[in-house]
Specification:
Blueprint lengths: L1 H10 L4 H14 L19 E7 L4 E8 L5 H11 L4 E3 H10 L13 H10 L7 H5 L7 E6 L5 E7 L20 E4 L3 E7 L1 H7 L1 H10 L4 H16 L3 E6 L5 E5 L4 E6 L5 E6 L1
Parallel strand pairs: 2-3
Antiparallel strand pairs: 1-2, 1-5, 4-5, 6-7, 7-8, 8-9, 10-11
Helix pairs in contact: 1-2, 2-3, 7-9, 8-9
The structure holds glycine (GLY).
């Protein structure tokens, strides 16, 4: 479970950035979710991945969009953050830099599951299909992690295969800092899941933090931001939040959202929130 992997990093004195990267890597390798292995296929039958990571101490971030044949795009996003002056890389330039960094590419088949191939075949010729409808009924979404470490540093990371039957080159909220991911040591760390176009339009991650700035509790801030997204752009999704005091917030307006969290006690609470 991603939460336990991240918790182990924190319990051994590791930084929040390492914890969120380790947690998301675990979830990218788990075929249950729409990230890394298990991702949705685009309209061409290809897997194109988006990911990002943000360091709340320095407000530094790294992101990659529409990249192919990477099992762990979150680690590559971190390399972009730490080894370049840029924030977001896409396309052939991203692949060139990945090769330069010695990043291991995998065959597309290593990211493919029978479940997603089956869904792609089913949706391929469907008339009137809209990706948003998937998020109102499909529990296997984007993965993300937020963490607070013993120095008071916050971090967030998110990774996704995007939406089913998306156009080639479509980029969702996940690599858009302020939409799918945000971390600021003074406010909180947020990671989002759901229909990316709606999440970008409302700037969901940063919107959660705006509610916190306005005095809402962690729980209420996430709920208000997700409800506002639904009200204003008819968006579906959810978000997780941790504050500098270790308060946790999670909320979604989709039928389900799998989650797990822990605190100093080391007890992990997990479930599929309905
Ligand atoms: N939230 C994932 C996406 O829309 O790409």
């Amino acid at each position: 479970m991603g939460c336990r992997v991240g918790l182990e990093v924190l319990q051994s004195g590791g930084p929040a950035l390492d914890a969120v990267e380790a947690a998301v890597r675990q979830l990218e390798a788990d075929p249950t979710f729409d990230a890394g292995c298990g991702s949705f296929l685009n309209e061409d039958g290809e897997v194109e991945l988006d990911a990002s990571i943000m360091d709340g101490a320095k407000l530094k971030a790294g992101a990659v969009a529409a990249v192919r044949r990477l099992l762990h795009p979150v680690t590559f996003a971190r390399k972009i953050m730490e080894k370049t002056d840029h924030l977001l890389l896409v396309g052939t330039g991203a692949e060139k830099f990945a090769r330069k960094m010695g990043t291991k590419f995998c065959p597309t088949t290593a990211l493919l599951t029978g479940r997603e191939l089956g869904l792609w075949k089913k949706l391929r010729k469907k008339k009137g299909f809209h990706a948003k409808t998937v998020f109102s009924g499909h529990p296997k979404g984007t993965v993300g992690a937020v963490a607070l470490d013993s120095w008071g540093n916050l971090a967030a990371a998110t990774s996704t295969g995007g939406t089913p039957r998306k156009m080639a080159g479509r980029v969702g909220d996940t690599p858009v800092i302020g939409a799918g991911t945000y971390a600021d040591n003074t406010l909180g760390a947020v990671s989002c899941t759901g229909w990316g176009e709606g999440i970008i339009r409302i700037g969901l991650a940063r919107r959660v933090l705006s509610y916190l700035e306005g005095g809402a509790s962690a729980r209420v801030a996430v709920k208000r931001a997700v409800e506002e997204m639904r009200r204003r752009v008819d968006g579906y999704g959810g978000a997780i939040l941790v504050t500098p005091k270790g308060q946790i917030g999670l909320y979604h307006n989709t039928p389900r959202m799998a989650f797990a969290y822990s605190d100093k006690t080391g007890d992990v609470k997990a479930g599929i929130k309905i």
